[in-house]
Amino acid sequence: MSAPTLDRSATGSPDEATLQEQFDATIAADRRIEPRDWMPEGYRKTLVRQVAQHAHSEIIGMQPEGDWLLAAPSLRRKAVLLAKVQDEAGHGLYLYSAAETLGADRADLTDKLIEGRQKYSSIFNYPTPAYADVGVIGWLVDGAAICNQVPLCRSSYGPYARAMIRVCKEESFHQRQGYELLMTMMRGTDEQRAMVQDAVDRWWWPSLMMFGPPDDESPNTAQSMAWGIKRHTNDELRQRFVDMTVPQAQALGVTLPDPDLAWDESSGHWRFGAIDWAEFARVLAGDGPKNAERIARRRAARDDNAWVVEAATAYARKHERGAA
Ligand code: BYC
After folding, report:
1. What is the pLDDT of residues 163-173, one digit of tens each?
2. Using a 6 Å cutoff on CB, does residue 54 contact ligand 1?
3. Which of 213, 216, 209, 279 is nearest to 242 (CA)?
4. Which of 38, 236, 295, 316 would bridge 19 by S-S if both were Cys, CB 3.0 to 4.6 A apart?
5. What's the pLDDT tens digit per position in 146-161?
6. Is there an atom of ligand 1 within 6 Å of 150 CB?
7. Coil, helix or strand for 317?
8. Among 182, 192, 172, 148, residue whose Cα is nearest residue 251
9. Which residues contact 117 (CB under 8 A, 6 or more apart)?
10. What is the per-residue pLDDT across 213-258, written as a single tens digit (0 to 9) for each?
11. Residues forming a β-bridge with 263
């Protein structure tokens, strides 16, 4: 449901205090803020930060799996992977469009990403040396993304929440294709099983880091939850992911690389070991295994394809003039 539209006719423009009151009432009633509505500058900035970072993650996230497009082991696997990687491009496009409804400019956001002034998810700075990585990304990375993004379908900003609905449907397909790929490999040879286990060992901890810093070190969570942008804290979603994933690992027949992982009867949750937050900080600071390569490739894509943007812009202008 959208926010009540302000009546600006009787007394001219309402003052800032009235607008703030109206905004607070919309949030308190759990209704959506739409692009036409007044919003506090902090709310707009927080959304641009999160939505842009999310969009960048989708686009940069095409690279690790994209590396396997030319080496997929069969035509079927290639078609599935191609569809998945194309979906990620689509997610990036919806999200850049959502950011544009907040007044952001897409080319400017891309420049900020390339210049290191905006972030993208830490997870995409890890390498994909084996084909099993494609399956593990689908299972763990898309699985973590679903845990994080399903609640965002109820985010208070309308265009972001609506984009998330379609994104989550597609992520479910991604997660299943990954799990199915891994099940096939686990039914294969000893070498294939070893390849899956090695990929799980490499991706497990970075997947837990995707949810962001622990709650007591997350500067943005409290305000983002008060505004209804985020619906759960980082630690709540991380726990949900672990609880969901451990039985899947058991069904698959792989071991999660955490000696402290144990079922806690009293809380009804899986307890897990300490996350290496120093590694997370290093990756965020640009010092992960693949940071430089990911950004160099994104920069080359922007520069090499600038002529397409120029040609499309000139074509659109010509048609606008014709219509006028
Ligand atoms: N990586 O206060 P916090 C996909 C930053 S792609 C990097 O907790 P917040 C897929 C955070 O930005 C899906 N940075 O922040 C695609 C902040 O720094 P700034 C990606 C991280 O925003 C292709 C600082 O740390 N999903 O599914 O309240 C193939 C403090 O954090 C990370 C999304 O983007 C990280 N992991 O919460 C396959 C979800 N974590 O900005 C799959 C949308 C934290 O102040 N985003 N930081 O400089 C969110 O839900 C939230 O932004 C986060 C962080 C939970 C990630």
Report:
1. 999 999 999 99
2. yes
3. 209
4. 38
5. 999 999 999 999 999 9
6. no
7. helix
8. 182
9. none
10. 999 999 999 999 999 999 999 999 999 999 999 999 999 999 999 9
11. 270
**How many other β-carbons are positioned within 10 Å of the β-carbon of residue 55?**
27
Confidence band for 323, pLDDT divided at 50, 70 and 90: confident
Span 17-59, pLDDT tens digits: 999 999 999 999 999 999 999 999 999 999 999 999 999 999 9
Q: How far is the CA of 191 from the centre of ligand 1 (A)?
A: 35
57 CB within 6 A, ligand 1: yes
**CA-to-CA separations, 229 to 6, 17, 110, 204, 291, in angstroms, rounded:** 22, 22, 23, 27, 28
**Which ligand 1 atom lies nearest to the CA of residue 174?**
38
Q: Which residue has the tokens 């084996």?
A: 130
Residue 1's pLDDT is 43
CB proximity list for 215: less than 8 A, separation 6 or greater: 221, 233, 234, 235
Report the alpha-carbon distance of residue 275 to residue 272 in Å, rounded: 9
Which atom in ligand 1 lies closest to the alpha carbon of residue 220? Answer: 2
Q: Pick from 275, 139, 264, 240: which is nearest to 231 by CA?
A: 240
DSSP state at residue 33: B
Which is the closest atom of ligand 1 to the Cα of 120?
7
**Confidence band, pLDDT 50/70/90 cuts, at residue 11:** low
DSSP per-residue codes, 187-244: TS-HHHHHHHHHHHHHHHHHHHHTT-S-GGG-TTHHHHHHTTS-SS-HHHHHHHHHHH
Query: Could you tell me which residues are beta bridge partners of residue 32?
Result: 2
Strands of the chain (E only): list them.
262-264, 269-271
- Angle between the N-to-C axes of helices 41-60 and 106-114, in degrees from 0 to 180, rounded to the nearest 10: 70
